[in-house]
Design goal:
Radius of gyration: 20 Å
Low-confidence stretches: 159-165
Strand order of the largest sheet: 2-1-3-4-5
């Protein structure tokens, strides 16, 4: 009997994804969001945003548990003086990997103008609709400046029932 030649195996290379979850700080020390002012206070204290708030646009998502305690602040992008790219996949990827129940999105306007652009409104709606597919609630969208902020929820731009609002209550 003649031996059959062995078939060569084809090896495919692919990227490997590693997931690491570190609890920091302790759950008892978690920062709780109760209103839009809490969001602004959290963000303006971050060195990355504080140092660049008048220089270039940056986009962040704040990941929250069901008690609206901050799990993480996730930087999505950095851009130019007038815009920054927003990829909804990156926002949801962070929220899903962190097992977030709620998210808040925010970005700065280096000009200091707090009025949302049409693009700001459109991307907020798209993020809200996309997050709902995964049972993640978008509680608010903030535009930040060095001295103040604009909250979509406080100003009635979004129609979310569960919201962070001027009353500083979340249920």
């Amino acid at each position: 009997m003649k031996k059959q030649p062995m078939k060569k195996e084809t090896i495919y290379n692919a990227a490997e994804i590693a997931i690491t979850y570190k609890v920091n700080p302790a759950p008892s020390e978690a920062y709780k969001i109760t209103c839009s002012r809490d969001i602004y206070n959290l963000m303006i204290e971050l060195p990355k945003i504080n140092e660049n708030i008048q220089y270039k646009e940056m986009f962040f998502s704040i990941l929250l548990n069901n008690a609206n305690e901050v799990i993480a602040v996730h930087k999505i992008s950095e851009g130019t003086t007038t815009s920054t790219p927003v990829d909804i996949k990156f926002i949801l990827q962070g929220a899903i990997l962190a097992n977030a129940s709620n998210i808040i999105i925010c970005h700065n306007h280096p000009s200091g103008r707090l009025e949302p652009s049409n693009e700001d409104k459109k991307i907020t709606i798209r993020i809200q609709q996309s997050a709902e597919i995964f049972n993640i609630k978008l509680l608010d969208s903030l535009i930040l400046s060095i001295n103040n902020y604009f909250s979509f929820t406080d100003n009635g731009i979004r129609s979310e029932e569960r919201r962070v609002g001027k009353e500083c209550t979340i249920q």
